[in-house]
């Protein structure tokens, strides 16, 4: 997870499915073939038969860089389009809620990723029994240790949130929509923002970083996260970047399966990642650990 401002690189121009007609013929055909081969269309959501589609409304203004949205702008379809300034608070709320979910996940589920910490906690329980000969006190040791894990997970993640909400997520328009080489998209369902994702280009290695992906918990399981991820991949293909990269401390298996379904390869993990907000105190080292995973989707060889 990152909380610093993005690098200012590369001009951003997003091309969505319905905007391919604006591309020159040869480039358009190449992009359609590439996108079709890499990301097959999402399955249609179950539901009653839809009425014949009405002609799409004429947009009020052309999005920055000639970009358009993906999907119908209203009704039951999900529209992926560029962020608008009026959606600042909605985007911040989705980001905040998504990060807050990581507190119990990191404190409890994340413990399974750290066998040495498990062994240490078991030794502490055994030491307690050896000193007190009390089963009750020994049984209370794991409860206390888990409570401390929750406390320190909350402490560090709230510090990380404070950092993020006072940097790039404080002014999405300024950090992602105005600088070249960055963009921020929202998923809109029935007029409400239900998902977010950002992209930031790295000029030094010609890659794009996928950032800030989050979906409102009430609307998960509908393919919205995958659609948001594909928007970033479209951006990378259109602008001829060599790869898309991302880093995550997510504990849930579903998040990692999502990245793999988009074509990302797991490039490694580290238990020594310093999350913004960490103080690296002894207590924090004992009761808060994260595993940082790196993913990469290679689009072309340099």
TrEMBL record:
Gene Ontology annotations for the cellular component aspect, listed alphabetically: endoplasmic reticulum membrane; mitochondrial membrane
Gene3D superfamilies: 3.40.630.30
Listed EC numbers: 2.3.1.17
Bias-annotated ranges (Gly residues): 65-74
Membrane topology category: Single-pass membrane protein
Major subcellular site: cytoplasm
Region: Disordered, residue numbers: 46-74
Membrane-spanning intervals of the chain: 119-152
Reactions it catalyzes: L-aspartate + acetyl-CoA = N-acetyl-L-aspartate + CoA + H(+)
UniProtKB keywords: Acyltransferase, Cytoplasm, Endoplasmic reticulum, Membrane, Microsome, Mitochondrion, Transferase, Transmembrane, Transmembrane helix
Family: Belongs to the NAT8 family.
Protein's name in the database: N-acetylaspartate synthetase
Organism: Propithecus coquereli (Coquerel's sifaka)
């Amino acid at each position: 997870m990152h909380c610093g401002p993005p690098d200012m690189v590369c001009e951003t121009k997003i091309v969505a499915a319905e905007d391919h007609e604006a591309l020159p013929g040869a480039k358009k055909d190449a992009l359609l073939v590439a996108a079709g081969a890499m990301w097959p269309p999402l399955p249609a959501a179950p539901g009653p038969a839809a009425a014949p589609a009405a002609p799409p409304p004429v947009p009020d203004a052309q999005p920055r860089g000639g970009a358009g949205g993906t999907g119908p702008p209203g009704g039951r379809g999900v529209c992926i389009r560029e962020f608008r300034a009026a959606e600042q608070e909605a985007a911040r709320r989705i980001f905040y809620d998504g990060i807050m979910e990581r507190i119990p996940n990191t404190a409890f589920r994340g413990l399974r990723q750290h066998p040495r910490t498990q062994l240490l906690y078991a030794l502490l329980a055994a030491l307690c029994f050896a000193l007190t000969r009390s089963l009750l006190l020994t049984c209370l040791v794991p409860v206390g240790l888990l409570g401390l894990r929750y406390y320190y997970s909350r402490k560090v993640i709230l510090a990380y949130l404070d950092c993020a909400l006072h940097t790039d997520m404080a002014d999405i328009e300024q950090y992602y929509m105005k600088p070249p080489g960055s963009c921020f998209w929202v998923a809109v369902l029935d007029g409400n923002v239900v998902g977010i994702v950002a992209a930031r280009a790295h000029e030094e290695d010609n890659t794009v970083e996928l950032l800030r992906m989050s979906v409102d918990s009430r609307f998960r399981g509908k393919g919205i996260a995958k659609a948001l991820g594909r928007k970033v991949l479209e951006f990378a293909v259109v602008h001829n970047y060599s790869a898309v990269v991302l880093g995550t401390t997510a504990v849930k298996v579903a998040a990692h399966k999502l990245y793999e379904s988009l074509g990302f390869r797991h490039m490694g993990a580290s238990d020594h990642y310093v999350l913004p907000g960490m103080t690296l105190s002894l207590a924090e080292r004992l009761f808060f650990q994260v595993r940082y995973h790196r993913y990469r989707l290679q689009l072309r060889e340099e």
